[in-house]
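Risk mitigation, structural track. In case the binding assays with 5-bromo-uridine-5'-monophosphate fail to produce interpretable data, a predicted complex structure has been prepared as a fallback.
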Amino acid sequence: MQPEDVWGNRWHESTLAMAKRYMTVACEKQSLVCLAADRNTMSGLFELLEQVGPHIAALKTHVDLIDDWSAEKWSEFCVAAKQYNLLIFEDRKFADIGKISRSQMAGIYDIRSWSNIVTAHLISGPDIVDGLQSAWQDVGREGGVLLLAQMSSRGNLLSVDYCDSVVAKGVVSAGVLGFIGNGSRPEELAELRSKVGDSKMIWTPGVNLATGDGEMGQRYGDPGDAVLAGSDCIIVGSGIHRADNPAAMAKQYAEASWKALLER
Ligand code: 5BU
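Fallback model:
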């Protein structure tokens, strides 16, 4: 199936190269799953990648939570990940002024050199997007920024007014891939989609086949419902990496997401 047929307006209205790349990979793998690879050791990460690599379109990392991280092991990991035809997404949630965010993309983790996507809050104003895009340009690479318009955790402070401002600034920003929406609440998500329109992506954490409350204020909604409500990518962590059989589980999430996309 051709991505333009599957994605419709999202394909035609997207201007950022990374958006088209994601939509193409999703079609090739018939999966809208981004694995939140929240493992604390390098061996745990390698193991998880090998199990679920074939079933996911993107791999989300928290590079700063790994106990035995080293630059060498990490670059080996990124090489291995890319062999599975997927995007690497560092969920760094940048929030500082533009020039500092640009510098934070370098530093010890050198996120600019291996990430395709990063998250950012827009709390400091729109220049953060230019800062992050400049960092990718500094190393001759391209990337896309996902702005936090909603969060999945209970009691978060991203009010509807705040979300509206993020969307208003984000939809007109060339470097923005799209928005993080709350995958646990399809009705909030549908509202977000109507505000965003078709030109930007919505990626959603807070998704699990077992819906309801998670640990420490996390909330979960159903993967198919999230996609039907307007999500373009379901971010799934423990639903996959804590399963007895992560590969079988990843496949199940992939099938649910793909079926919902075709239905949408
Ligand atoms: P879980 O195990 O499926 O709950 O993992 C969710 C992941 O998504 C985890 O890596 C969080 O950092 C990430 N996340 C989230 O849960 N909620 C949010 O609003 C954002 C990110 Br933004």
